[in-house]
């Protein structure tokens, strides 16, 4: 059973691209996440909405780091420890969407 | 039976193997070999493959199976396969039957050595000896069903021993017989004592007319008068005439029944043999020797009888020679008496010719040209010896005068001081030259003393000459004094002294003191005797006082006055005359003793021949060419230089002569290079002729040198003394030159003859089958025979051998053998007789066990202690004994061993002991290539063995069963049939050691025995395992579902079951049935009841998964099982997913649920009476949901019930114990409960307990692929939920575990794709533990690594309280721990 992840990119209210992820991010689908982020980032700053991501591990953290400068993250409290521990919250702005 | 099976059961190409293969077993009492017990098959195989005679007796009537080696022993009884034993050996069944019965009935091996079995196997009743061992053969049940016999015929050895004893007895007689009659008597008497070997003997001697005359017969009533009309008597006359032995085979026809010598039939065969070796070459007589009917008169028997005849001849001939010698000695003694008389009569006649010689001689010496040194020297020799002869003649005459009372004395009153001083001064120069102090103190006395001048001169000169002769340092003092009316003269020396024992005889005539160091051994022994006679004539006395090695004082007391003297002998004082003339012979003699040196010129002629003791080079004859017999070397020893030179001149034309000056020098020369003959004087300084002979005879290198002694001492006594000392001949001085030369030649010839005798003796010794050796007093082996060489590989060429010869067991390799041999040697050196059994090392490296005996003898010629011994090879017997011992030890060991593995382990130890092996290793192949290894050494696995040993063991797999492989030195192996496969055993003997044929046989036997023992032990093992398996089956499942732990402790050991039980049943719907019960009692009876209840309960639960229904049904069932009433049961059905437990209890103590916080809930609902107490009870059921991380404890009352304590207190204690156990695993917790709750003396009742921790541990295995991640994560998430873990903490755990799994997948992919990764998760009351195991190897991550994996590990460490990553050869294990506090809970 492959890990389920749905990704969609839409312009946000301020015109910034918003990538919304739903599901779980791990090494099996990190590439897919990477592709979506790269595509969205081609057009400038990106907002990644992880509010409905139930699982994120270092594979996802690694993808996020690759686009860190200029990345804004929206995450549920469930993901906060991972983002904090990995240091991602130091280089991006994380909004706790709790 | 197929031919292949037959080949297997009866291996080999021998006749018996064929016969057995073709034998129709089907109809036989033993049946088809396929159905035989293993022991019979093994024994049969050993029997057929052995080169030693062996028999297998099997069954009630001991059916007879044997091998090819046994055929010769069976003789014409063959074929006898499968015949009953008592029919095969009917004639000896009275002897062997009871022995076999004993083995069959007691199972004890027996053993008989040299058993006499009269046997008719070659057409006559034969005396045969056998060494048998009987070992029991058990069938597979351990019942003795047969006997295994290994046989060795020892007839040859027994008979050989007897014959040897006969020859030894005869040999001991050799020197005893003084007459021919006595010799015959001794021989026949000796043979009478050996009637079993020589039942009849008669000695005939050649009579005066060459006709035989009977000297002695062993049976006066038989064997002497021929049967009238028969073939005739003994052909003794023919044998005497032709000198050839005759064999008779018609003895009974000639003489009827001769004495049988203890055998059942009288002798049929006999030999008449000549007694050869008489003086004239013809036979001295003949001997009739009958052969025992028990042995065929074969070549060996005939040659033995030949040796008996030779021994007899030697004894008889020696007696003849002895008688001849006795006659000669008597004649000689008579001659000597006549000679002495003659000498006494004529000695005074010598004076005239002596005077006529000496007078002109002195003139000649004065006239001779000083330039002609040779002539002057020869004149000096003549002169000195003339003077000496004159002195001897005078002394002899003095004696004869004294004896005849014709001594004419003339006593003058003299100033004894002045006269004595005068006489003493004559010796001054001699003492000076000898380097000895000389003090003369003879003051004038108050009155004159009446002395005869000539006599006093002789007194003083003799004493001074004596003092000089025996004094080598210090001072000689002459003192005259006046004491108690006597004139006292003392002559004191600091010489060698006289032994106290000799003092009383000091003044006896011709008495000489032997063995006292002196300047010369010349001397007649009459000087001091004469002095005493002379002093006596003066009315005086002489005494001697002496201390050995300190000196001697002679004290002479003469009375003053003349009252004691006859008037006619008293004269007026006359003119004093010069003492020089009388002193001259004394001085001349004395000077000859002294070293040449500063002699006052002209006083005496210098000595030419008297050099320091040592060698004088041998010379060839005068013309410079070797003489005719120059290769014959003569050693000449004489202290008299003139005699030495004279003899040398005499012998040198014919021989190569080496001359030495004393016995010691002669001994050294002889040892350096043994001469062909030694001619020696008897009287010599340092070492006398007699001592010299003794010393030569004591040394093997010189013992054979013929010795001719020369002596001035005549008489029979002296000659016998010389001959007894070992001299070959004795010649008295004076002797004629021709006689000396004739004696030398005769002795040389005799010596050559003697070697013939020695050769004959050697042939006799070599004919012995046994090893023979002769040991001298130092322990060196100085003679061995051919038997010795055969047995040990070391022959006479290596003689002499040191006491511990090259055959000595090595101290390192064979400490036990070394000890035995060393002890035997110690006994041999001290005891007079004894025997020993020791292992020795043959030259080829083989170990040979020998048994032997030794006797101390005194060398008749030299009087030394020698030891003579024989030994024989008892390797076979030894191994037979060893075999019995080994099988016995093996049997004992096997009876003690508890399992097949232990049997094998112990057996290897036994094998190591048996062969003193450095290591014994066994490999068992049970099918796979990898073998199980058992060893006395350190290795415990196939890979741990050295490669060489692995090869040796592997090669054994191709070896036939029970056939030892021992082709090279160093070790031996054998293949056995192991119950579980094939077993190879390798015995490591250490470098160079060989396996003998006996070792092989022993190895086969022990191997066969071990195989049987393993079979039995294996069966026992299986039975035991079956019993245990059955017990465990009654008890409960051996494998529990995850999350459960159980313990059971029966009160009654060694039973593993009792009245309590537990059961955990995985029901088809995924739920789990839990049951704990307790029947009344705790013995085997209770256990059988328990087993039935447990089975029934299990069946009920499987059929209808309801606790209440099950217990209701159990009421009915229990009432039908005797002993089933009143059993208590707790029954529950657990849903591991939800934690819901539906339970019911039949009078059982309540289960307990312990919450993570330590709180305990007893499960007290749905309780009712014990089983089958009342006819109908409606059992109810209660439900309880186990909270996350709680523990369920169900138990029997043995756990909690204690005397003097309410059960409820025990239940509380159990709950507390679980609550306080902390983060222990379930298994640890079970263990803690069992030990922590146990009373001091252990549980008195059966105890059963079941523990369950909720939730069940998670255990997932999945392929190392990232596609699996989501599914695994989902399972873990669910499990965490059932553990009651809140979402955020669960997220931490999920990420940490996810990272570890991701790592495992990465590395698993990298190294071994398709490998599994395993995730296990366990909860306890307050802890989570996750373990992720993979088969890959992780890369070390540098600190500060921001890569993907670097993030992963950092995340794990941050999220968990403890992370350990353990890389191992088979994979990596990651452990994650997290303590749970209440904040974590959902």
| Average pLDDT number of chain A | 85
Q: Give the CATH architecture of chain A.
A: 2-Layer Sandwich
The largest pleated sheet of chain A is described as:
5 strands, mixed
CATH homologous superfamily (4th level) name of chain A: STAS domain
Q: State the assembly state of the protein chains.
A: heterodimer
Written description of the protein model:
The complex is a heterodimer of chains A (98) and B (1386). Chain A has helices at 30-41, 58-66, 80-86, 88-91, and strands at 5-11, 17-25, 46-56, 71-75, 93-96. Helices cover 33% and strands 37% of the residues of chain A. Chain A starts with a strand and ends with a strand. Chain A has a five-stranded mixed beta sheet. Chain A has 98 residues and is α/β, with parallel strands linked by helices. At the A-B interface, helix 2 and helix 3 of A face helix 33, helix 34 and helix 35 of B.
Concise account of the structure shown:
Chain A has 98 residues and is an alpha/beta fold. Chain A is built from four helices and five strands; from the N terminus they run E-E-H-E-H-E-H-H-E. In chain A, strands 1-2-3-4-5 form a five-stranded mixed β-sheet.
Topology:
The complex is a heterodimer of chains A (98) and B (1386).
Chain A: E1 5-11, E2 17-25, H1 30-41, E3 46-56, H2 58-66, E4 71-75, H3 80-86, H4 88-91, E5 93-96
Parallel strand pairs in A: 2-3, 3-4, 4-5
Antiparallel strand pairs in A: 1-2
Chain B: H1 3-9, H2 15-22, H3 38-49, E1 54-58, E2 63-66, H4 71-74, H5 85-88, H6 93-106, E3 110-120, E4 125-138, E5 144-153, H7 155-173, H8 180-192, E6 201-206, E7 212-217, H9 236-242, E8 246-248, H10 251-255, E9 269-275, E10 285-291, H11 299-367, H12 373-404, E11 411-414, H13 416-425, H14 428-434, E12 437-441, E13 449-452, H15 453-470, E14 475-483, E15 486-493, H16 527-537, E16 541-547, E17 551-559, H17 580-593, E18 615-619, E19 633-637, H18 641-651, E20 656-660, H19 663-672, E21 677-681, H20 689-698, E22 707-711, H21 716-724, E23 729-732, H22 737-766, E24 771-775, E25 781-784, H23 786-792, H24 815-830, E26 833-841, E27 847-858, E28 865-873, H25 875-896, H26 900-915, E29 919-925, E30 932-935, H27 947-956, E31 971-978, E32 981-988, H28 997-1035, E33 1044-1049, E34 1060-1066, E35 1072-1078, H29 1084-1103, H30 1107-1120, E36 1128-1135, E37 1140-1146, E38 1151-1154, E39 1160-1163, E40 1167-1168, E41 1182-1185, E42 1190-1195, H31 1207-1220, H32 1226-1237, E43 1247-1254, E44 1258-1263, H33 1269-1282, H34 1287-1311, E45 1316-1324, E46 1327-1333, ...
Parallel strand pairs in B: 12-14, 19-20, 19-21, 21-22, 22-23, 37-40
Antiparallel strand pairs in B: 1-2, 1-5, 3-4, 4-5, 6-7, 6-10, 8-9, 9-10, 11-13, 14-15, 15-17, 16-17, 18-20, 24-25, 24-28, 26-27, 27-28, 29-30, 29-32, 31-32, 33-43, 34-35, 35-36, 36-37, 37-41, 38-39, 38-42, 42-43, 44-45, 45-46, 46-48, 47-48
């Amino acid at each position: 059973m492959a890990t389920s992840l749905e990704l969609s990119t839409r312009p946000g209210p301020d015109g910034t691209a918003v990538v919304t992820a739903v599901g779980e991010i791990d090494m099996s689908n990190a590439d897919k996440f990477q592709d979506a982020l790269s595509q969205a980032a081609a057009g400038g700053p990106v907002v990644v909405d992880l509010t409905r991501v139930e699982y994120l591990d270092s594979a996802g953290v690694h993808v996020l780091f690759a686009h860190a400068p200029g990345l804004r993250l929206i995450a549920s409290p469930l993901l906060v420890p991972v983002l904090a521990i990995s240091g991602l919250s130091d280089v991006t702005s994380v909004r706790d969407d709790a | 039976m197929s031919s292949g099976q037959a080949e297997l059961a009866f291996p080999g190409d021998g006749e018996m193997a064929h016969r057995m293969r073709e034998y129709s077993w089907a109809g036989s009492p033993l049946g088809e070999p396929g159905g035989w017990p293993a022991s019979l098959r093994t024994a049969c195989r050993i029997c057929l493959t052995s080169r030693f005679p062996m028999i297998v007796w099997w069954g009630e009537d001991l059916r007879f199976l044997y091998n090819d080696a046994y055929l010769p022993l069976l003789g014409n009884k063959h074929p006898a396969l499968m015949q009953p034993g008592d029919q095969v050996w009917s004639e000896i069944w009275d002897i062997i039957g009871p022995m076999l019965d004993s083995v069959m009935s007691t199972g004890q091996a027996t053993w008989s050595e040299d058993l006499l079995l009269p046997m008719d196997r070659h057409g006559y009743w034969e005396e045969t000896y056998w060494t048998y061992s009987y070992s029991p053969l058990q069938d597979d049940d351990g019942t003795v069903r047969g006997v295994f016999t290994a046989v060795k015929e020892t007839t040859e050895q027994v008979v050989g021993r007897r014959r040897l004893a006969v020859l030894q007895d005869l040999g001991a007689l050799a020197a005893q017989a003084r007459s021919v009659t006595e010799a015959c008597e001794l021989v026949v008497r000796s043979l009478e004592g050996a009637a079993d070997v020589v039942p009849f003997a008669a000695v005939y001697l050649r009579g005066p007319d060459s006709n035989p005359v009977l000297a002695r017969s062993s049976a006066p009533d038989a064997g002497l008068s021929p049967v009238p009309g028969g073939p005739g008597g003994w052909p003794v006359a023919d044998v005497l005439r032709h000198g050839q032995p005759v064999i008779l085979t018609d003895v009974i026809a000639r003489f009827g029944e001769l004495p049988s010598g203890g055998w059942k039939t009288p002798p049929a065969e006999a030999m008449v043999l000549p007694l050869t070796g008489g003086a004239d070459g013809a036979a001295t007589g003949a001997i009739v020797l009958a052969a025992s009917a028990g042995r065929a008169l074969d070549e060996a028997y005939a040659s033995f009888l030949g040796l008996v005849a030779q021994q007899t001849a030697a004894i008889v001939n020696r007696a003849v020679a002895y008688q001849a010698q006795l006659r000669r000695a008597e004649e000689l003694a008579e001659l000597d008496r006549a000679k002495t008389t003659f000498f006494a009569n004529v000695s005074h006649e010598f004076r005239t010719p002596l005077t006529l010689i000496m007078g002109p001689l002195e003139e000649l010496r004065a006239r001779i040209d000083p330039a002609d040194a040779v002539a002057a020297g020869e004149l000096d020799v003549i002169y000195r010896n003339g003077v000496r002869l004159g002195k001897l003649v005078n002394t002899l005459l003095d004696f004869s005068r004294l004896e005849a009372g014709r001594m004419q004395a003339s006593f003058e009153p003299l100033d004894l001081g002045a006269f004595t001083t005068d006489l003493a001064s004559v010796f001054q120069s001699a003492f000076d030259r000898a380097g000895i102090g000389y003090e003369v103190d003879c003051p004038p006395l108050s009155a004159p003393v009446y002395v005869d001048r000539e006599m006093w001169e002789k007194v003083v000169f003799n004493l001074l000459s004596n003092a000089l002769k025996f004094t080598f340092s210090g001072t000689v003092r002459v003192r005259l004094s006046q004491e108690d009316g006597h004139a006292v003269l003392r002559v004191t020396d600091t010489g060698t002294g006289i032994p106290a024992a000799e003092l009383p005889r000091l003044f006896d005539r011709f008495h000489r003191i032997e063995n006292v160091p002196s300047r010369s051994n010349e001397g007649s022994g009459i000087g001091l005797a004469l002095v005493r006679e002379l002093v006596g004539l003066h009315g005086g006395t002489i005494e001697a006082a002496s201390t050995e090695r300190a000196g001697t004082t002679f004290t002479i007391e003469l009375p003053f006055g003349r009252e004691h003297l006859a008037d006619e002998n008293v004269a007026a004082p006359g003119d004093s005359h010069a003492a020089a003339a009388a002193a001259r012979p004394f001085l001349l003699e004395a000077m000859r003793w002294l070293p040449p040196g500063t002699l006052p010129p002209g006083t005496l002629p210098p000595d030419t021949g008297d050099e320091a003791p040592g060698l004088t080079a041998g010379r060839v004859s005068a013309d410079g060419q070797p003489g005719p017999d120059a290769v014959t070397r003569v050693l000449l020893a004489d202290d008299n230089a003139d005699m030495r030179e004279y003899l040398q001149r005499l012998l040198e034309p014919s021989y190569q002569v080496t001359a030495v000056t004393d016995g010691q020098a002669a001994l050294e020369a002889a040892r350096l290079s043994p001469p062909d003959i030694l001619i020696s004087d008897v009287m010599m300084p340092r070492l006398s002729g007699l001592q010299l002979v003794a010393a030569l005879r004591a040394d093997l290198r010189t013992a054979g040198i013929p010795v001719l002694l020369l002596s001035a001492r005549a008489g029979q006594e002296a000659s016998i003394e010389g001959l007894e000392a070992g001299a070959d001949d004795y010649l008295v001085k004076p002797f004629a030159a021709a006689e000396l030369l004739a004696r030398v030649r005769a002795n040389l010839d005799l010596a050559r003859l003697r070697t013939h005798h020695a050769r004959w003796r050697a042939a006799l010794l070599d004919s012995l089958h046994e090893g023979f050796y002769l040991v001298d007093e130092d322990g060196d082996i100085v003679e061995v025979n051919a038997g010795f060489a055969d047995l040990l590989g070391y022959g006479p060429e290596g003689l002499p051998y040191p006491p511990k010869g090259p055959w000595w067991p090595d101290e390192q390799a064979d400490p036990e053998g070394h000890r035995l041999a060393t002890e035997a040697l110690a006994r041999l050196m001290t005891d007079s007789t004894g025997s020993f059994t020791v292992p020795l090392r043959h030259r080829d490296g083989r170990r040979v066990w020998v048994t032997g005996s030794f006797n101390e003898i005194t060398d008749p010629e030299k009087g030394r202690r020698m030891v003579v011994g024989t030994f024989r090879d008892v390797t076979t017997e030894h191994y037979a004994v060893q075999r019995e011992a080994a099988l016995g030890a093996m049997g004992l060991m096997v009876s003690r061993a508890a399992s097949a593995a232990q049997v094998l382990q112990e057996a290897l130890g036994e094998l190591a002991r048996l062969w003193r092996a450095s290591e014994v290793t066994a490999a068992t192949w049970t099918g796979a290539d990898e073998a199980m290894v058992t060893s006395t050494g350190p290795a415990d696995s196939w890979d741990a063995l050295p490669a060489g040993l692995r090869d040796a063991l592997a090669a054994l797999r191709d070896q036939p069963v029970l056939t030892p492989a021992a082709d090279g030195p160093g070790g031996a192996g054998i293949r056995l049939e192991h119950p579980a496969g094939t077993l190879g055993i390798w015995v490591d003997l250490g470098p160079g050691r060989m396996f003998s044929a006996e070792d092989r046989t022993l190895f086969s036997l022990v191997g066969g025995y071990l195989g049987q023992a393993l079979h039995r032990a294996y069966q026992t093992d299986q039975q035991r395992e079956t019993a245990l398996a059955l017990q465990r089956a009654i008890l409960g499942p051996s494998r529990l579902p995850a999350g459960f732990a159980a313990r059971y402790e029966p009160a009654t050991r060694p039973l593993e079951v009792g009245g309590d039980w537990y059961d955990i049943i995985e029901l088809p719907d995924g739920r789990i049935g839990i049951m704990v019960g307790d029947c009344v009692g705790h013995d085997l009876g209770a256990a059988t009841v328990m087993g039935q209840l447990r089975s029934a309960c299990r069946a009920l639960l499987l059929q209808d998964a309801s606790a209440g229904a099950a217990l209701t049904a159990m009421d009915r069932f229990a009432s039908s099982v005797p002993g089933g009433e009143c059993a208590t049961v707790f029954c529950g059905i657990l849903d591991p997913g939800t934690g819901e437990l539906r339970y019911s209890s039949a009078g059982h103590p309540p289960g307990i649920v312990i919450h993570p916080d330590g709180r305990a809930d007893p499960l007290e609902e749905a309780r009712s009476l014990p089983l089958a107490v009342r006819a109908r009870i409606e059992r109810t059921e209660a439900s309880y949901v186990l909270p996350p991380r709680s523990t369920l404890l169900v138990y029997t009352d043995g756990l909690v019930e204690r005397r003097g304590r309410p059960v409820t207190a025990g239940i509380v204690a159990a709950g507390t114990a679980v609550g306080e156990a902390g983060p222990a695993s379930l298994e640890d917790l079970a263990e803690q409960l069992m030990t922590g709750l146990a009373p001091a003396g252990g549980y008195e009742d059966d105890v059963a307990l079941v523990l369950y921790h909720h939730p069940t541990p998670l255990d997932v295995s999945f392929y190392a692929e990232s596609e699996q991640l989501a599914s695994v994560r989902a399972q873990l998430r669910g499990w965490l939920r059932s553990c009651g873990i809140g979402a955020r903490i669960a997220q931490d755990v999920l990420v940490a575990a996810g990272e570890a799994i991701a790592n495992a997948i990465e590395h698993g992919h990298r190294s071994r794709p398709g490998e599994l990764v395993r995730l296990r998760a366990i909860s306890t009351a307050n802890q989570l533990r996750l373990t992720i195991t993979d088969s890959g190897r992780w890369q070390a991550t540098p600190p500060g690594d921001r890569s993907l994996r670097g993030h992963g590990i950092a995340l794990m460490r941050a999220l968990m309280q403890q992370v350990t990553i353990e890389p191992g050869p088979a994979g990596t294990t990651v452990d994650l721990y997290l303590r749970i506090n209440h904040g974590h809970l959902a």
